[in-house]
Amino acid sequence: GEDVEQSLFLSVREGDSSVINCTYTDSSSTYLYWYKQEPGAGLQLLTYIFSNMDMKQDQRLTVLLNKKDKHLSLRIADTQTGDSAIYFCAESNSNTGKLIFGQGTTLQVKP
Amino acid sequence: NAGVTQTPKFQVLKTGQSMTLQCAQDMNHNSMYWYRQDPGMGLRLIYYSASEGTTDKGEVPNGYNVSRLNKREFSLRLESAAPSQTSVYFCASRLLNTEAFFGQGTRLTVV
Fold first, then answer.
1. pLDDT tens, B51-103?
2. What is each CA distance from B56 to A92, B53, B93, in whole angstroms?
3. What pLDDT is stored for residue B14 in this prediction?
4. What pLDDT score was predicted for residue B87?
5. Distance (Å) from the C-alpha of residue B34 to the closest C-alpha of chain A?
6. pLDDT for the residue numbered A16
7. What is the mean pLDDT of chain A?
8. Which residues of chain A have pLDDT under 70?
9. Which of A3, A17, A74, B60 has the greatest number of C-beta atoms within 10 Å?
10. Helix, strand or coil, per DSSP, at residue B70
11. What are phi and psi of A86, to 5 degrees?
12. Residues 38-57 of A with CB under 8 A from B
C-alpha cells in the first residue's frame, strides 16, 4: 500500500537553509506535493512537482525528486521566523485518486 | 466563494453517541476527502470519493461511514463514538491531480 514518511522535527537558525525530507512508496504516484500548516489552521499548498521532473524552483523554495529512490525534499532558502510551521509531503495516485500525506515535519526557526 | 466549508467547528460527544460531520465545496471539484489529524501521526486518510457516486476506504476507515450526497457535499458519520476518535477532522476537495483545498477543520472530543 501507499506510505509516506517524514522526520518529525527540524530546528534551524533564521537565515539558514532548511531541508525537509520525505520518502514515499507508491511508484504510480504522478504528483507529489508540499503543504504548510500554521497553528490552528488548515493546510495550504506550497508547491508541487510532477513525477517526470527532477527539480522545481519557486522563489525561496526548491523541490528535488529522486524517483529511483522515491525520495522528495523541500529546501527553504534564507529561512525566516514566519516559516515556522508543520510541513507535509503528499503523494497522489492518478489511477485511484488517492491523496496520502506523511506525518508532517515541524520546522522551528530560532532568531 | 467560500471554498471548503466544514460544520461544526467544535463538538464534544459522549462515548456511544453518533454524529455526522458535514463538508461542502463550491469549486465544482470531482474528488473529496476526509482526514483525521493526530499529534505525531500526520494526516491519515479515512475515506475518499474520487468522483460523484463513488466512495473508497482510506488508511483508517474503521468506525466511520461516508456519504457523497451530491457533487458538492461529502459527509462523515460516526455511528458510535469512541474516545480513540478524538481528533481534528479535515475535509478536502480537488480536481484530479491538482491542488487539494482544505476546510478549517472540526475539533472533536469524545469523553
1. 998 999 999 999 999 999 899 999 999 999 999 999 999 999 999 878 899 99
2. 15, 10, 15
3. 98
4. 97
5. 10
6. 97
7. 92
8. 1
9. A74
10. coil
11. -100, 135
12. 41-45, 48
Closest CA to B111 of B13, B10, B8, B9: B13
B83/B9 Cα distance (integer angstroms): 18
Which amino acid is it at B44? R
* Nearest-angstrom CA–CA distance, A2 and A14: 35
> To probe the interface with A, which of B97, B98, B107 has the most A CB atoms within 10 Å?
B97
Distance CA B47, CA B67 (A): 10
The SS3 call for residue A82 is helix
Distance from CA of A4 to the nearest CA of B (A): 10
* Cell 479515512, located at residue: B46
Write the burial class of residue A9 (CB in 10 Å: 0-12 exposed, 13-18 middle, 19+ buried): exposed
Q: What is the mean pLDDT of residues B26-32?
A: 95
Distances, alpha carbon B83 to alpha carbons B14, B64, B80, B89, B108, in Å = 8, 14, 10, 14, 10
Q: How far is B97 from chain A (nearest CA, A)?
A: 6
